[in-house]
Amino acid sequence: MALGIPTNSRRSLDGFTLIELLVAISVMALMAVMGWRALAGMQQATTQTRTHTDAVLTLEAGLAQWGTDLDALAELPFTTAVEWDGRALRITRSHSAGPNEGVLVVAWTRDSRDDAAQWLRWQSAPVRSRQEWQQAWAAAAAWAQSPSDAAKQREVAIAPLAQWQIYYYRGGAWSNPLSSSGAPNASKGTPAPAATPDGVRLVLTLSSPHPLAGTLSRDWARPTTGSTTP
Which of 25, 147, 148, 172 has minimal Cβ neighbours within 10 Å of its Cβ? Predict the structure, then answer.
């Protein structure tokens, strides 16, 4: 005698059919793939954000160091405080640890590293005599022209750089540091001494993929500070 159980109730007692099971598995697999793609996208976005943040912070630190180097200019007898030769800006600056530690020679340039042009900073060991200063000053120029492996150990890469320009503020106007405009004794046709300018303008053109790719300008004004001979 039939119990009169409906067809739908009989299916629930017998379990899912093979087709229903395959459909359920396919839906679960699709949801899993979509979930993994979402997680991968979130991870990629997080990594990209971290990379961009690190690049911006590194550039800010480099610009801060640029200003600190210029603020710490040491104008000493028979030495040069700051000089631009068309490739590198060399600076004689006081030591952050104090006058008893001597002075430092630092240099900034743009050069290729790992097949990419970079904004670079180089720093000498502390110098305490005029002879040591001359050696460090020459070493900074050599590093900017053709760096040795030993010289590269003293450099720091700041940011990818398409190009850069330096201007001096002299005689009430901005000009090319290599020009005679505003330079002492220029009207007499004699070589101008390496006098410290009243200001230095830095113009950077950052390369992609840096998050701040484009032109960036930073001005420095000469403070009125004294200095001592090492």
Answer: 172
Residue (of 75, 149, 65) closest to 107 by Cα position: 65
Q: Are 169 and 197 in contact (CB under 8 A)?
A: yes
Please name every residue paired with 111 in a beta bridge, in sequence order, or none if there are none. Answer: 118
Element (H, E) at 175: strand 173-175
Mean per-residue pLDDT of the chain:
83
- Reported as a single tens digit per residue, the pLDDT across 132-164 is 999 999 999 999 999 999 999 999 999 999 999
Integer Cα distance of 111 and 152 in angstroms: 11
Helix (H) or strand (E) holding 52: helix 18-71
Q: What is the DSSP letter of 195?
A: P
227 Cβ contact list (under 8 Å, min separation 6): 73, 74, 75, 76, 94
Q: Identify the pLDDT of residue 181.
A: 62
Structure confidence at residue 15 as a pLDDT band (50, 70, 90): low
CA distance 204 to 160: 10
The whole-angstrom separation of Cα 192 and Cα 180 is 8
Is the CA virtual torsion 31, 37, 40, 42 positive or negative?
A: negative
Other C-beta atoms closer than 10 Å to the C-beta of 88 total 22
The two structure tokens encoding residue 168:
């001096």
Given a cut of 60, whether residue 3 has pLDDT beyond it is no
